[in-house]
Amino acid sequence: MASNDVDGQCDKNEDDVAEGRCIHMETFSEATVLKDMLDQLKNVDEDIRAQEVALQNFKVIIDRYQLQPAVMDPYLEGYINQLMGYIKDPNSSKVLLCLSFKYLYLISKMRSQKLLARYLPHEVTDLPFALKLLQAQDPEDGATWETRYMLLLWLSIACMIPFDLNRLDTMTDGTKSVMDQILELSQFYVCKSDKCKDAAVYLLAKFMTRDDVKKKHLSSYLDWACKIMHSSKLEEMDGKNPVVGIIWNLALLLKYGKREDLLKHAGYLLKNFSACSLSFTGDTLMRKAKIKFLQRLGLIFLKSRVASWRYARGCRSIAVNLATDVKMSSVQPAFVDIPTESEDNDEYDIPEEMEEIIEQLLNGLKDNDTVVRWSAAKGIGRLTGRLPKELADEVVGSILVVFSNMEGEFAWHGGCMALAELGRRGLLLPQRLPDVMSVVREALRYDVRHGKTSVGAPVRDAACYISWSFARAYDPEEMRPFVQQLASSLLIAAVFDRQSCIRKAAAAAFQENVGRQGSFPHGIDIVTVVDYYSVGSLQNCYLNLSIILAQYPEYRFHLIDHLADIKIKHWDVAIRKLTAKALKLLVPFAPDYMAETVLPKVLSLTHVHDLTTQQGAILAVGEVTCGLANYGEKEGQRSVEDVLGETTVECLRTLVEKLEKAHSFRGVGGEQLQQTVANYIQNLSLAKLPFHNLPIIDVWQQFLFECLCKDKLEVQTAALECFPIFVFEYYQSRDGEVQAEKRDALLEHCVQELTSDRNFRRMSHALALGKLPHVLIKGKLDYILPSLCSAAELSDKPELWAEARSDAVKAINSLCLTVDIQQDGPSDSYICKDNLNLVYETFFEAIKDYTIDKRRGDIGAFVREAAMQSLHDLTCKITDVQPAMLSKNIVERTICSFAQQACEKIDRTRALASNLFLQLLHHTPPVPYIPQKDFLLEIFSKDKITNMRWHIQSDSFDLFASLLTIEVFSYHVLLGFIQSAGGLSQSLCVHSTKALDSYMQSEIVKDPKLTFFRKNLIEIFQTYQKVDRVTLPLLNLLGQLFDRQVFINYCKQPENEIFLKELLSLTKREVSKSVQHNKLSSSIKVFCGLMQFSESLRKDCLKQLGIFLCHQYPKIRLNTANELYDTLLLYDDILPEEHADDCMGLIGETKWDQSREEIRPVRNQLWEMLDIPPPVKKTASQS
Q1: Which candidate, 548, 496, 492, 541, places its Cα nearest to that of 522?
Q2: pTM (predicted TM-score)
Q3: Which of 1057, 1087, 1086, 1083 is nearest to 1070 (CA)?
Q4: Is-cis flag, bond preceding 786, omega within 30?
Q5: Crossing angle of helices 1007-1023/967-981, nearest 10°?
Q6: What are 885-923's pLDDT values in tens digits?
Q7: Which secondary-structure segment (H or E) carries 311?
Q8: Regarding beta strands 311-312 and 335-336, do their DSSP bridges make them parallel or antiparallel, or are they unpaired?
Q9: What is d(CA 999, CA 1043) in angstroms, rounded to the nearest whole number?
Q10: H helix intervals, 232-303
């Protein structure tokens, strides 16, 4: 019981961790809990489960503070001392020792090994104790690696005692000195491949800095290290691990050791390191270790000094930077230290080895891994700070060389980090800023296309970091010449970059510059809008923030030029579409510039060979043209020809024709270009360009027809969006008169395509008819509507046309919503009494579509969902306008259909039906003729349905099961439950059957109500005889109901036996001549379930079961025997007492999967004992 409680506590804590990581923690709230865990640690026995639970509970708490470990600092010393007390206690068991070290490791992982080492005991007696304990460990034991790790870490602080280690030799029993033992263990673990290597590297670095150790062992240790590097086989993992450990150790040794002690060995180390010819490719950790070692070695070669020439910023007050009333003369200027004469004459003795080191660090800036490049950048910053001014400037020049078109993204990224590091340290002098800022602007838009994607996000991120660091590093006066360009570049990145992390980094850099520099135009106003959260949404950036920024003239044209020159060529189609939309929105801020500069420039790109550029240009041309037309109409009542100019209008007119002649719509990318051109035609139609009655309209129309006939959904969708806008504009004359001849030809073409032999053509043309504007429908509704209704009907091979029927239903719904409703209106222009029944009957037939496809399953669900939505929309519209047109029959059939679909098996369909049912029920004004509306409102009150998840079976089934008590709904709800309860999904069966059981056994349900329940059950069985979609789940449901003895209280009366006999008759008829294994198996359960009732029923059921006992399928015979055996055990009054044991033994011992000739005599013998004539095989003449 205790273990279970602990497990529950552990699970709870894990949930808390997931939530706690998002919360800023002020205090360590589990201090007492953790202290109790440590107190209980000594009570943990040898039970492995108890050990794992204790460790897991401790780990959960520690992991919760992984991101905020400082809150534990006040308690760390107490925890560590308590754990070390367990370790140093001679009476502690091995289990306690192991767990204590595991706890210490978890603390070190959370708070770092360096900080933990400070709290470890380091008295003189601790060193031999820890050494002896480490020597007793098994280096190959994977279960105790934490013990070895912590012992090595403990030795790293214990070995720093301020006494000669030779004095401790008397405290050990070994023949070797303490110094030699520690050195030997450290060298051993440095070459290991587990986590202990990290602690051993740290231990050996600290240990070799001792005066007594370095005098005796430093030279020999360095010889050993170089020997290992020379002899190891780097192509093998066993040879690579020791080299990595040694290089890391040498880097730490160079960090902690004194320069005067290591300088004499520096040349030797570099010579051997270079002679190893280490190919560091393929191993990130080794390459990083190499860079660390080289930079530390370079710091040994150079004297430690603060460069007198470095740049130092004077004023760092944000308040002063932002103050508008402070005169520039009152601001303390930045300054550069001018070296004194003595400093100038100070001899800079730069060793020749530095050239090789710096060269390798510069190469490290081009490494494939970020951690290596970042380490190289920091190393260059450290070394440059110790170089003379001239040499440091050469380093800066070498870094700037990296930013060339010949270099890849890794070199650009490393160079950016190096520049940021130099600027942060004041090593990048102002005279270099013009060159550097030019590079930064290039890096902020660095985006190189590689195939269908691009590289450069890390480069842009690093450029944002440079901008952020320069804001802190330089005085505003130094940055003033670059403010305008830098501010524009940062805002472009913050608003238009594809990566959200780059947009946020650019926004942060802009904000930092506004605060630190104080000279960014409109900085405060922009910072309040372009913040961390607003730039998170790409659509918000392009369509909202860009409009706000365009209000400021300083940024307006930079934004427009970036979109027109860069983003329309972007590899991501989503960016190109957003770019075109953004350009349209920016038209009102610079209409003349857009018309005279941007539009001609983009038009020139519409015939280039690069598909990406061509598509982006066409999108931009369409959107900008539409924007200019709207602007001219709104602002100056100028015609579109005046705004665009005749030359541009002519180019727009001939664009599609030129693309057709160039065969641009064929081959790779042709379909993508078709989507773009459809959008282009849509925008030109919205712009109302004066192309009415010109031949180009026929070209556009033919192009749209071709798009509608494509089998790509994206192309069809683009054409369908364009279609109603195009026909509305160009199928009328400029004075608004419909061109009847063109309209009739269009309708005839679309109606003919409704009978096409291609499903996608039927779909697209049906939707096109549904999207027709009202002006073109008027007078032709009686031609369009019957055609769509015919297209929605079931036909031969219904699985081929399911989507077409669904779209036909959607098109009818769209037409009904487009035209007006008038009861006595003409049927060619209105939804009226003459065509209303046709529409509703089409929807009612569509809602019965249960077409099954072998590959895709129930594809009729698409049609049913479209029909439900259409019924809801039309009923609501009529209720709002002409409620008298609704009849009781229509409303009842509609809402009953929704109730049935709300009880069926597809979650998506069930959720839609439930929501539409409720919307119709609670519609305002009220829908007339809803049956039992008061009762329904009580069941589905607004309080109950709030936040209801209708796709979840447990939430919806119980409510809809209540409708079984209403005679109007009973048939439809029961039909829906049959398909759910008898389906294959386990959860669906459980919840639907549970809802039915609750209804059947409810105290509210009396016998009269059960009567129409039984009547509906029989009616469903009769209506759907031989329809497997219904009868198979119905047989499964009946088997479940009989197993639960649901009918036992109602059907034992003689007057109710007719119901059971009808079930028996229908079941026998259903399985007659059937060869479906699942149907036959389900019927066996029904026959066995019916045996619990009257004697006559039992005999009829046994006769049928006797046939199954000799069925041609062995599985059916086995299933029959098993079910019959269980039934006879459950109902002991079926068998005659004198033959009961013999019958049960015969059924149980017979192998029913033998041949029928062998088991038929057994079956006949069994039936004779039951006093039932055995079945007789029909002869050919009888059949």
Answers
A1: 548
A2: 0.81
A3: 1083
A4: no
A5: 60
A6: 999 999 999 999 999 999 888 889 989 999 999 999 999
A7: strand 311-312
A8: antiparallel
A9: 16
A10: 237-256, 259-275, 284-301
